[in-house]
Amino acid sequence: MEKLDSQTTSRRTFLTAALAAAPLALIGARGAAAAVATQAPDTGKGPFTLPPLPYRFDALEPHIDARTMQIHHDKHHATYVKNLNDAAAKTPELAGKSAEGLIRNLSSLPEAVRTTVRNNGGGHVNHTLFWSLMRPRGGGPPTGQIAAVLNRDFGGFDAFKTAFNEAGVKRFGSGWVWLVRQNEGGKLAIVTTPNQDNPLMPDVTGGGYPILGNDVWEHAYYLKYQNRRADYLKAWWNTINWNMVNQRLAASGYTSS
Ligand code: MN3
User: Fold this and answer.
1) Which residues of 179-214 are buried (b: 16+ CB within 10 A; e: fewer)?
2) Rounded to whole angstroms, how far apart are CA atoms 151 and 149?
3) For a Cys-Cys bond, which of 69, 97, 119, 255 suits 101, CB 3.0-4.6 Å?
4) Is residue 4 part of a domain?
5) Could you tell me the pTM of the whole model?
6) Dist. CA 71 → ligand 1 center (Å)
7) Domain limits at 115?
8) How far is the CA of 217 from the centre of ligand 1 (A)?
9) Distance between CA atoms of residues 58 and 67, nearest Å
10) How far away, in angstroms, is 77 Cα from ligand 1 center?
11) Which chain residues have CB less than 5 Å from ligand 1, an ion?
12) What is the distance in A from the centroid of ligand 1 to the CA of 76?
């Protein structure tokens, strides 16, 4: 009994202290989550900006949970933008260039800033593209030109999905899985990249124009799927914005003749 009383006293002391110091701590989980959501993402000062998520955090439920989307966009993506802004403040060579322009021409940058731009410029470009490739009530069978192309070049949507998901599962550690129109030969291919590398970077093996890409970093799925990357990869197809995929297929210059 003495032990219980002691715990109760400690708890009261803690609550009193918490109430005095931070009333928000006592308003409950829903209120706390809302309080977090209203904080503007920290992107530092500079020319690079975080595009707003084009739908609500919970718009891709149940395939991708709201909490993952919030942290992924407001924290992870925001940090890539902030790091890029911090680099721009110290490196005049980054001024007036888009993130995509920077990652396409990494070798033209001072060596001291190349890795920072590779990782954070890559992170910014990759995530901006990633959000646009998904939509509420997305997924389903592919529509438009991409449907015909997947049939012809990959033996159909199901075979393509299987190959894409297998590549994503096999990417060791953190990285991305892509459908690209390759620079060499102009063919469509599934490739994976480590870290925040993007197929537009000139030294990426099998690189080219990214038409579709999925983030296989653990931060993209761990809260809901834990270690089950394969389950996340399968569920992700329910979020695809096929209109955007078709726009990127056209922009890649690929012709199916
Ligand atoms: Mn990510």
Assistant:
1) bbbbeeeeebbbbbbeebbbbbbeebebbbbbbbbb
2) 5
3) 97
4) no
5) 0.85
6) 10
7) 66-132
8) 6
9) 8
10) 7
11) 215, 217
12) 7
pLDDT tens per residue across all 257 residues of the chain = 334 444 433 443 333 333 344 444 433 444 444 445 558 999 999 999 999 999 999 999 999 999 999 999 999 999 999 999 999 999 999 989 999 999 999 999 999 999 999 999 999 999 999 999 999 999 999 999 999 999 999 999 999 999 999 999 999 999 999 999 999 999 999 999 999 999 999 999 999 999 999 999 999 999 999 999 999 999 999 999 999 999 999 999 998 66
| CATH number of the domain within which 244 lies | 3.55.40.20
| 130 Cα–ligand 1 center, Å | 9
Q: How far is the CA of 83 from the centre of ligand 1 (A)?
A: 15
Smallest CA-to-CA distance from 210 within 119, 96, 127 is with: 127
Question: How far away, in angstroms, is 215 Cα from ligand 1 center?
Answer: 6
